[in-house]
Amino acid sequence: MIENLKLCAGQRESVVLQRTNITRLTARVIRAAGFDLEQVEHLTVMDAPNLEHVAVEDLTKMPNLKSFFITQAPLLHKIPPLPALPELRTFMITTSGLVEIPNLSHVHDKNSADSSIPILQAIDLEGNHIKRIPTHSLRVRADQVSLNYNLIEEVPAHAFKNSQISKLSFKGNTKLHKLDDKAFAGNLLLRQLDLSNTAITSLPTKGLEKLEILKIEKTPSLKYIPSIYEFQHLEKAFLTHRFHCCAFAFPERHNPARHALYETQLAIMAQRCGKSNQMKSPEKRERRSTNPDVKTTTERIAYDYNSTESGEDYALWTSEEYFSDSGSFEDYEGEFHDPVNNSVGVTYFLECDNFSLSRRQVECRPLPNALNPCEDVMGWSWLRASVWFVIAAAVVGNIAVLLVLLTNHVELTVPRFLMCHLAFSDLCTGLYLFMIAVVDLRSYGEFFNYAYDWQYGVGCKIAGFFSVFSGQLSVFTLTIVTLERWFAITYAIYLERRISLKAAAKIMIGGWFFSFVMAGFPLLGISDYSSTSICLPVESEGIEDAVYQGSLFMTNAVAWVTIVVCYVQIYRSLGGGGEKYGGRGAAAAAERRIANKMALLIGTDLLCWAPVAFFGITALAGVPLVDVSHGKVLLVFFYPLNACANPFLYAILTKQYRRDFITLISRTGMCTWLVEKYKLNTSPPLTAHTNPSAPAAHVPLVDYQRSVSQITKNGEAEIL
């Protein structure tokens, strides 16, 4: 079935063939539909499921044809080379089966009768199955060319040589991964380029000297953005990564060598223009500026610069005969943007007597934000130095604990078992900080040049995994350690109620599994380790991210409340601060020491978790009170606080650890003087049992039982 629409405008006609079953589009089909070929200006074919061939030679029978449009023709795979169609302005084949780009190079071939050269307003080949672009395949003169949403995988060298294209778009070619270094070379009129939603990893610059608008959105694979000095007229850039905009804001840090060359050429230009102004008279200056065959001083210097920097390709734009078979550049400048002087990255006036310069500002999106500022990983110098002290304390302290606990040939108890897990988790925090600090040193002063490889590489994922895994395992282990102490002291006289080593192992298996799961979610797409340079899952874009981050904060909150409640119970079971003894005596002093240790343990946990949780919750609620720059202070001084303090509070400063340490040293045979000194200091005083000649002290039975009970409790709390 064919539905024909005949639209008349004066004597001209617009042909629209809808839902047609034709297999060949010919002049006969159009005549049969009742149209006069001589009067056809617009030819449109819509929804032609059987169309396989277009008789392009018949298009010459429509001398007034201005637009040719085919859509939804899945069997149309190829279009023969188009003949000369001097009036054609729009050529569109969309959502069809094209597998190659039609040859349009002869559409506007110059004839002897007409010296003007028209330009295609639009070439639209969107939504086809084009996989490759042959060299010189688009040798056309067009204001805009759209190759959106095809299957293009590569753009070869000189694909657009001898072309005049102002706007070029490859948007939606998700398989496009490679652009040859000379892919756009030869197309010196390109003003707008769209490579959004592709898979390119780099962007060549030859042929983009006059580019004004660059779009590379939703293209996370793009690693590196070229220097602003390679885009001499760029005004707007719409990119994917925020750190790429830093390259335009800080060109001297982005490419120091290129910036130094720019400064040198700028000084030469200023010097030459100064000499030229002294030598030229106003009459000569006016005459030179109005003569198109003579370059001004500024233009000549720009020509020299480009010839030196990039060879002939840079200098070709000044030639009036660039298109040897197409006429001069001046013939088209009315259809394209006004020609812009080829400057060296700054704005100049054409005449040296008006010579002035200012840094060119590029409107870049997305702008750096609180999560991705244009700064180094650590941001401040004092923070960069401080982090190494934190790393040393965390790594050395926890390695010392693991070394002593794992090398002593003594019976493995539940406290020792839990201490090993705690030390390992805190050691992972130290390793995370070490990775961050090393990246900061390597990328000092120009992190945005390394941001892609770091944030989207394996290193950041490993660092982020270490961070979340160690944090969750440390919190879990601290909670179990506290519960074990509370249970042991509360039920001190019931030895059968103690937590067994087997039960502790099962509990810690659950803790490891929980920590692995929480650290693995960002690797599966729930939140993201790549959202910031410090590799923490801080960005929340969906409900899943919010739930995940809220779970992390709630875990810390529940753990801290549990620890506080348990230590309060432990403190009460030990006598409540010496009230039973009137605040006097050795027992009261011992209880005060235990209370101070408990307060220190609870305080370090609070300082570690509370600031991070508070600012994290405010950010999750949409009202962040601190940005990443200041949040790094939390990262260095609060977040790893437990990793630094735990090995000392829970192990190194306890009597049991010192005893194990001396035992380890004594087996090595070294530092015998230290071993003897420790034995001397820890030898018990002489009593009636050790010295029979001394009279034994009489102790009432009630007081004796109380003393035994208190000693038992103090012994259980000694690990505090």
Automatic annotation (TrEMBL):
InterPro entries: GPCR_Rhodpsn, GPCR_Rhodpsn_7TM, Gphrmn_rcpt_fam, LRR_dom_sf. It is a multi-pass membrane protein. Residues 397-650 form the G-protein coupled receptors family 1 profile domain. Residues 275-298 are annotated as: Disordered. The chain crosses the membrane at residues 382-406, 418-439, 473-495, 507-526, 546-570, 599-621, 633-653. GO terms for biological process: adenylate cyclase-activating G protein-coupled receptor signaling pathway; hormone-mediated signaling pathway. It is found in: Cell membrane. This is G-protein coupled receptors family 1 profile domain-containing protein. It comes from Euphydryas editha.
